[in-house]
TrEMBL record:
The keyword Membrane applies. Signal peptide: none annotated. It holds the Pfam family MFS_2. Coiled coil: none annotated. This is MFS transporter. The chain crosses the membrane at residues 12-32, 44-61, 82-98, 110-132, 153-173, 185-204, 230-254, 266-287, 296-315, 321-342, 363-389, 401-426. InterPro entries: MFS_2, MFS_trans_sf, Na/Gal_symport. Belongs to the sodium:galactoside symporter (TC 2.A.2) family. Keywords: Membrane, Transmembrane, Transmembrane helix.
Length: 457
């Protein structure tokens, strides 16, 4: 199969797509739990239940969106047109997510459910095609890894900008009303997100067209479950997102209550961790040129468990400086695996085709997206229950028991999920050498490898 190198412009455009997707991811990972409890006034347990309920919607919407990408092809390809058509609805959904009408408590809860579920559906419509997109940009594993390095780098830039600036913009624009401030700040971010998604559409193209078996959902699911390497990645996705989302979801609580900081300090603390992740993206790309990407994946996540335990026992309440240093180191190590993971999904899809003789692409990527959101939903649900269990009270001085619980939720508990992820990865075997040998045998079919979709249509 002939492969084409990606230009820098196309890699930047691909990364811009993830910047847009991360407008909502940043909101859900870093702001949503704190926003719902401390600004909108919902109870932690109710917020956790909302996050879990949304995952039942995802259980239907994610596979269905994956099937749509398999069955529907426009003149731009199978994935790219969704960036054009759904960009504005996606941005509007983010704006509604942070719109907080002055209703009774029950009406507020209903509003939260409606807007959060709508945002979830719009996110699915954009994210499933986006995470599938790397498989049709190029078939070269090195180029995929490089493009995903750009993607993760720009995603982290988006996270830093949003986490660092939104609390400041909310204070500036809110005129004393945090709810109004967050609405305007996130409204601005959603507008930028729409532009980034359209830029991704304009600067990238689908150049590899795989043969897609348009089988019923049941048959595709059976084929997918025979793909043992995809199952490994699915388990890793749930575990990793559980740890990542729990840590991100309590970072504001940890800085404000455990370390005694302000909301601006919480934004700075969280942003510093995300900035370390940006450096991690670059380091990961450099390391994987010289060291096995699968080994990096395994051992970096096991190290996260060790560093998390160290942070729990070393940092005392109010010790902001030490907490910041350890949090930055932890955040750097956590994301060393990220570019590897997103490249591995495309390779696992190819592996499934080589193993079964049938290609299941849309459902595979849709399933990974569901696993990611399932991990985030479970993290939100568990965090809400744990905040309630430890006796957290919004906007008040916390008990020693509550402070210990918040510290555990930032360190030991998510660290355990990451360490388990590392051990699960010992079941993963698709190294670059393994993949190239599989490709050389002709096990991966492709149509029209030397032409773009536009040229074919």
């Amino acid at each position: 199969m002939k492969t084409e190198k990606l230009s820098v412009v196309e890699k930047v455009g691909f990364g811009a797509g993830d910047m847009s997707v991360n407008v909502m991811i940043a909101a859900m990972f870093y702001f949503m739990q704190y926003f719902y409890t401390d600004i909108f006034g919902l109870k932690p347990a109710h917020v956790g239940t909302l996050f879990l309920a949304a995952r039942f919607i995802d259980a239907l919407s994610d596979p269905l969106m994956g099937l749509l990408t398999d069955k529907i092809k426009s003149r731009w390809g199978r994935f790219r047109h969704y960036f054009l058509y759904l960009s504005v609805p996606y941005g509007f959904a983010v704006f509604l997510l942070f719109t907080t009408p002055d209703f009774s408590y029950n009406a507020k809860l209903v509003w939260a459910y409606v807007t959060y579920l709508f945002a979830t559906l719009m996110f699915t419509g954009v994210a499933i095609p986006y995470i599938s997109y790397i498989g049709v940009l190029t078939s070269d594993p090195k180029e995929r890894l490089s493009a995903n390095g750009y993607r993760m780098f720009f995603a982290k830039i988006a996270n830093v900008v949003i986490v660092a600036s939104v609390p400041e913009l909310a204070a500036l624009w809110g005129e004393g009303s945090p709810a109004k401030g967050y609405q305007l700040a996130m409204g601005f971010m959603s507008f930028v997100g729409v532009g980034l998604l359209l830029f991704c559409f304009a600067t990238t193209r689908e150049r590899v067209e795989h043969v897609v078996d348009k089988k019923p959902l049941g048959e595709q699911l059976q084929l997918l479950l025979k793909n043992d390497q995809w199952l490994v990645l699915a388990a890793c996705c749930v575990l990793g997102t559980l740890g990542y989302a729990m840590r991100g979801g309590v970072a504001f609580y940890y800085t404000i209550y455990y370390l005694g900081g302000t909301e601006s300090m919480a934004a700075m603390f969280t942003s510093a961790g995300i900035a370390a992740s940006i450096v991690s993206m670059v380091a990961s790309t450099w390391i994987t040129k010289r060291y096995c990407k699968v080994q990096l994946f395994r051992w970096s996540q096991i190290l996260v468990g060790v560093l998390s335990a160290l942070m729990f026992f070393a940092v005392s309440p109010g010790d902001l400086a030490l907490a910041l240093v350890l949090y930055v180191i932890l955040s750097f190590v956590v994301d060393l695996h990220a570019p590897v993971f997103w490249s591995a999904i495309a390779e696992a899809v190819d592996y499934g085709q080589a193993k079964t003789g049938k290609r299941v692409s849309g459902l595979a990527f849709g399933g990974i997206s569901f696993c990611q959101k399932a991990g985030a939903g479970l993290a939100g649900f568990v965090t809400g229950l744990l905040l309630t269990f430890f006796g957290y009270q919004a906007g008040q001085e916390q008990s020693e028991f509550a402070l210990t619980g918040i510290s555990l939720m930032l360190t030991i508990i998510p660290g355990a999920f990451h360490a388990l992820l590392g051990f699960v990865m010992f079941k993963y075997k698709i190294t670059d050498r393994f993949y190239n040998e599989m490709k050389a045998r002709g096990d991966i079919e492709s149509e029209a490898p030397d032409h773009t979709i536009e040229e074919l249509t």
